[in-house]
Amino acid sequence: MDLEIVAEGLRFPEGPVAMPDGSVIVVEIAAGRVTRVRPDGSTETVAEPGGGPNGLAMGPDGRLWCCNNGGFAWVERNGFLAPHGQPDDYSGGRIEAIDLATGAVEVMYQDGDNGSRLRGPNDLVFDAHGGFYFTDHGKTRPRERDVTGLFYAKANGSHIAEVVHPLENPNGVGLSPDGRTVYVAETYTCRLWAFPVEAPGVLGAGRPLFSPGGYTFFDSLGVEAGGNICVATIGEPGISVVSPEGALVEKVATPDIFTTNICWGGEGMTTAWITLSGSGKLARAHWTRPGLRLAHQAG
Predict the structure, then answer these.
(1) Looking at residue 66, what is its pLDDT?
(2) Closest CA relative to residue 292, chosen from 205, 244, 228, 198
(3) How far apart are CA 29 and CA 261, in angstroms?
(4) Could you give the CA distance from residue 231 to residue 237 in angstroms, rounded to a whole number?
(5) Contact at 8 Å (CB) between 210 and 278?
(6) From edge to edge, which strands make up the β-sheet containing 33-37?
(7) Per-residue b/e over 229-252, b at no fewer than 16 CB within 10 Å?
(8) Which residues make beta-bridge pairs with 94?
(9) How far is CA 159 from the centre of its chain?
(10) CA–CA separation, 266 vs 290, rounded Å?
(11) Is the peptide bond before 49 cis (omega within 30 degrees of 0)?
(12) What superfamily would CATH give domain 4-286?
């Protein structure tokens, strides 16, 4: 697969959202901002929520919803930027909604339903019922790590519930094309889980679907229109394409050890946008199979 670098100089981009005008909106986690990348590679700031904006998705209210992890500490070596634990200025995890016209940021959730505070919300996906699933990746400190899970919340700010606990630093989350399965990728175990959806925000017992060998970690994920799950893979970098049955369909190699996200847009949903976060790049490629058009994603 040939990757075309569209934008460079981004500060750990993640959470790409393909827009109908051909632009892509990403977060720059290390800069605390949300950025639009135009087809010609030019950039403009959409919003500056601070902290650590992470996953993004368009919501049913026309706003851009953001998982804010509260910020990371960072290390930079050999031209690569990498997150490194909880920073001294950690501002707390939250779910935010961003007005694309004005850049106004509204905090929608900071607390779970069990009296706990959100620690490091990471990624989210909306269903067809006005709600969304999101992972809380938690925070890592020198000798301890948060125990977190998967949440379901409504886009009107009225409901939040932890639907799976515990998970080991959950990261990517996605829905099957029929909306009947939620997929969750754990980072450090490098395990992909599948949970049956019994009702909106109600999940049955999960099953481990896939885990690769080698020195690898999972980041975010996207789902193809045909049902394959495409998991951004760190360490031995690339996109691991996994069938709904749990078989590895293919591994698409990429040049950045911190390959973190994939989304689709364009004609036929065959333009893949991939974040090469460590080197600060957004790449574009033709994908041989169409990606799934997400709920509330404009055509």
Answers:
(1) 98
(2) 228
(3) 13
(4) 11
(5) no
(6) 13-18, 24-28, 33-37, 43-47
(7) bbbbbbebbbbbbbebeeeebebb
(8) 68
(9) 21
(10) 10
(11) no
(12) TolB, C-terminal domain (2.120.10.30)
- The set of residues, in sequence order, having a beta carbon less than 8 Å from that of 178 and lying 6+ positions away, is none
What value does the mean pLDDT take over residues 20-25? 97
DSSP string, 98-115: E-TTT--EEEEE-B-TTS
> Which amino acid belongs to residue 79?
G
**Average predicted confidence (pLDDT) for the chain:** 97
Res 299: pLDDT: 76
| In contact, 195 and 202? CB cutoff 8 Å | no
Compute the distance between CA of residue 20 and CA of residue 277 in angstroms, rounded to an integer: 23
Q: Name the token pair of 74.
A: 């960072």
Q: What is the pLDDT of residue 116?
A: 86
- What's the predicted TM-score (pTM) here? 0.98
What 3-state DSSP class applies to 7?
strand
Distances (CA, A) of 90 to 64, 108, 252: 23, 18, 35
| Alpha carbons 252 and 18: distance in angstroms, whole number | 20
Domain ranges of the chain: 4-286
Burial class (CB in 10 A: 0-12, 13-18, 19+), 88: exposed
* pLDDT over 90 (residue 114): no
